[in-house]
Structure formats: C-alpha cells, structure tokens
Design goal:
506 residues, alpha+beta, eleven-stranded mixed beta sheet, 14 helices, 35% helix
Length: 506
C-alpha cells in the first residue's frame, strides 16, 4: 500500500530535527543569518512573536509591572561581583574590548590599538547585574518597594550548536526583575509569575506544561530557587519553556540593593527575576505542527482566517469583492479579546497551490471561495487541526456566527491533543533498570517523561552522572504538588520524599 504523500519531508517519524527545520522553512518563519549562530526572523515569524509580546505585556502590566530598558553592554566587573553568576555564564559571554576601528594597511579593518576599553564590556547574557546596579540607586526607603520592572530585549549567549528559535547565540526575550521588602513577598512574586507563564502557555499556545522546581544543579546561577515550566514535544523530549527565580539576597548583597526599613534599620532587599523567549515559538511548532507544515493556535496566529479566492479569470474580480465584504464582516467579530484577523490571498497562484501554501503557514481556518460558493452564498471551510483534505460546507451567515467559536474549538482541540500525547508518553518508574530499559528501547523513537523518586545526592554521584550522560538524560524538575511521598531514589536507592521528571531535552 502506498503511503499518503506529505508536504513536509522528511516526516516527524522519519527525522524529527530535519522535519522541524523544514516546517520553519516552508512557513517562511525564519532563516539562519550570515552571522554565525544567529537567525533572521521573517515577517510571519516576527508577527507571531509580536502577538506573544502583546499578550504577555498585558499580563505583566495587570500584575503591576512597568517596562524599562537597560544597556546592552555590561561592565565585566559587574559580573565578577556575584561569583556563582559569573561562573554560570563565563563560557557563554561575548566580550567587547575596543571602541574604534582603523585600516590595517591592506584594505581591511582592525580594532584600533589605541582604542582599547579600560574595562571589557559583556554583551548581556542576562541583566541581573546591570539592573541590580540601577535598583541600588533607586532604592532608599521601604516606601520605594516593591520595584516591579520588565524589559523586552535581545541577549547573547554564545552557542556552538544552534537551532532556529530553540537555541541561537542571539535571541529575543523579556526579563522581569523585582525587589521586595521581605522574602515572603519575593517568593510570592516568583510563584505569581510562574503561574502567569503556565496560564499563557495553556490559554494562548495550547501548550500543556508542568510547573516544577529545578534541582540545585540546574538552578539559575546565583539563585536561591529556580522554578520552571516544562513541556513535552512530539519527539518525547522536554523543553524548558520559561523560568522564574527567587534570588534571595544574593544579588542585593553583591550590588548593595538596600533600604531603610520602617524600624529605621538598613536592610537588604529580596529580589526575583523571570523570563521567556522566542524559544516559545519553537516549542509551539514542535507541540502542534504536522507533516503538512505549521499548525498555529488561533490566539497567536497573525491571521486566524485565510480567504482563498479560486475562480476563473472572468470571475476573479467579483470573487475578490465578495471576499472583501466577508473579510470586513469577520473583522467585526472577536476572539480572545481581539478583532478577528483575516487575510485574503490575492496572489496569482493556482487554487491548489494557494490551498497548500495556506496549510503550510498554519492558518487555523481556511475558506475557499469560487463562483459556486459565491452564487450559493455558501463557504468551503477547512480547519488546521484536522486533516488538510477534510472540508465542510457552511452558509455564509452561519460561518459569520460560528467563526469565533470554531477558533476556540480549534484551540481546545490542540490543547487536548497535546495533553493526551504527554500523558500517553509519561510513565511512573521505581528502578534504574526500568528507566534504562524505557530510554534504551526508545533511543530512536519517542520516549517521554519518567516520573520517579529522586534523591538530590544523585546530582553529585559520579556513576549516576556518567550513566545519565550516556543516556542523554537530565532531571527536568521536581513537579510542584507531587513532593512529600516517601520512596527510594531510582538512581541511588536512598530514601527520599522528592519526585522528579527525567527526560531527554532541548
């Protein structure tokens, strides 16, 4: 029996990494830059990021945060003040040493020998240090607290092996930074923002995530506690989709972020930081897309409905006018708090080519309109969460009423499918042998998440470290709400009350 042809080759099952790159290429989301390790985000991809930005920005402001901007260049001495921080980022830093170029005598350029900076500057890998310096200047009294700041920016972490959206040397993100009078308030902020990320992933990306605490070996450099959201991709690997850090007083001690309390005594502030990045786009692609291309959750689709005029040349002007009227009516409807976004494909492509281009770009709803549809005032509708070849006919007025509900149904369908996939590929194990069989058996296939008792001593056990490295495994998190039950660590055999998720990851 011949296999059904797919738009994307190779398929997910045949070669997941190459499939991922082909989905991005086919949807025209991004491409590799001439600058090694960096990417060019193309208009369709950047429009997705803008919608993510807008929604998260609204959520941040609803929780009291304000946007600000801080320098791209960070003095090296700032990183050196917090030992764990500099150690954690030292191998990823790009360093600026000169401020001027000059001719090299051979028609080229070189850094001018007399223009060396008195102190090297680091292109920000993250901004705790430079923002901490500002917080120290802004903060004098307990009346100045809390300080709730967010920054939309780019960062650079030098990467040897890059993959579009998932791991590039330069990427876009937001980073929240806050300062508080008490540790309780700072911990509450840390967990509040973790909840914001979890709700956004679920309600806008249709991506089910697990909230958890990172183990000591996986904490953010300089943090007291790090929390994360972890998602499962369609190859069974985990993706860390966002993090929220309780920094305690570590950075306040290093940068003298202090204030005079109500008791007139000087004390150090308690700080947090939290962030998500363009990695969310990569996670969304790997969660929902199929062998025909990109699948977009409706809330972050640059256009949620594409109208595909398919008609003879003699009818095309009339069909386009019909599409224009329909687009105007649809744009008056709302979904997820915004007017529906509608695109009319006015290209000269043939009908079939228009259709498959729309499939590959991930429009949630495709509407085909030709002379027959126009004459009967009936539309041919396709949903991106269903087979590309599945179509239904619907009267125009009915579609106008149902369009927002169809979009919500697509979101619910994608979320349910991703949740079911994650649950079907998650197992509870209690022995190292079971774990090794699970991942060895699935070396070239979809494995998934192992939930198991875990003792923190396993992170420093040389034999465990070596075996985890051989299996390409890591402890993703200690899921919140699942700790406290006694058991024996499947890696060390020691009694523990911790439960961990172990998986391969990006």
């Amino acid at each position: 029996m011949s296999q059904e042809r797919t738009v994307i080759t190779p398929t997910r099952q045949a070669n997941f990494p190459e499939w991922y790159q082909e989905v991005i290429r086919h949807a025209d989301l991004a491409e590799h830059s001439v600058v090694r390790g960096c990417m060019v985000i193309k208009p369709w991809g950047y429009a997705i990021w803008e919608l993510i930005q807008q929604d998260l920005d609204r959520r941040f402001k609803e929780t009291g945060h304000q946007n600000a901007y801080f320098p791209l260049l960070i003095p090296m001495s700032f990183l050196e003040k917090e030992a764990q921080h500099v150690e954690g980022f030292a191998k990823e830093c790009a360093v600026v040493t000169h401020y001027r170029l000059e001719g090299n005598g051979e028609g080229g350029l070189r850094p001018a020998p007399g223009a060396q900076l008195t102190e090297p500057m680091i292109i920000r890998p993250t901004s705790e240090t430079i923002i901490g310096h500002s917080f120290a200047k802004w903060l004098t009294s307990y009346n100045d607290l809390p300080i709730l700041i967010n920054q939309w920016a780019n960062v650079m972490r030098w990467e040897m092996r890059t993959r579009l959206f998932l791991r590039t040397s330069e990427f876009l993100w937001q980073e929240g930074h806050t300062a508080h009078a008490t540790d309780r308030e700072a911990v509450e902020e840390t967990m509040r923002m973790l909840d914001v990320y979890e709700q956004f992933a679920r309600d806008r990306l249709a991506m089910p995530v697990i909230k958890g605490e990172k183990t000591p070996g996986e904490r953010f450099p300089g943090a007291v506690d790090t929390y994360c959201i972890e998602a499962m991709m369609q190859d069974g690997k985990a993706l860390q989709a966002g993090t929220s850090h309780f920094l305690g007083q570590n950075f306040s001690r290093a940068y003298d972020i202090g204030f005079t309390g109500s008791n007139q005594q000087r004390q150090l502030a308690w700080t947090t930081s939290w962030g998500v990045s363009t990695r969310l786009i990569g996670g969304m692609i790997m969660t929902h897309s199929d062998d025909d291309g990109l699948v977009l959750p409706p809330a972050i689709a640059p256009a949620q409905i594409v109208l595909l005029p398919v008609a003879k040349a003699t009818e095309m002007e009339q069909v386009l006018n019909y599409c224009q009227d329909l687009s105007r009516e649809l744009s008056a409807k709302h979904y997820a708090g915004q007017a529906l976004r509608v695109h009319i494909d006015r290209s000269n492509l043939r009908g079939g080519d228009k259709f498959w281009k729309a499939v590959g770009k991930g429009y949630p709803l495709r509407v085909e309109i030709g002379g027959r549809e126009m004459a009967g005032d009936t539309l041919t509708i396709s949903r991106r969460d269903q087979s590309a070849r599945e179509r239904t006919s619907m009267p125009r007025q009915e579609f106008l009423q149902k369009a927002p509900f169809l979009l919500q149904d697509i979101h619910d369908s994608l979320l349910a499918r991703a949740t079911r996939f994650r649950d079907d590929h998650s197992v509870v194990l209690e022995s190292k042998e079971e774990m090794e069989r699970f991942f060895d058996r699935n070396e070239a296939k979809v494995a998934g998440f192992v939930r198991a008792p875990f003792h923190l001593d396993a992170e420093t056990d040389p034999a465990v470290i070596e075996r985890m490295k051989e299996l390409k495994l890591s402890v993703r998190c200690l899921p919140l709400g699942e700790q406290g039950r006694p058991g024996r660590c499947l890696l060390t055999g020691k009694e523990t009350r911790n439960v961990a998720i172990i998986a391969r990851s990006y």
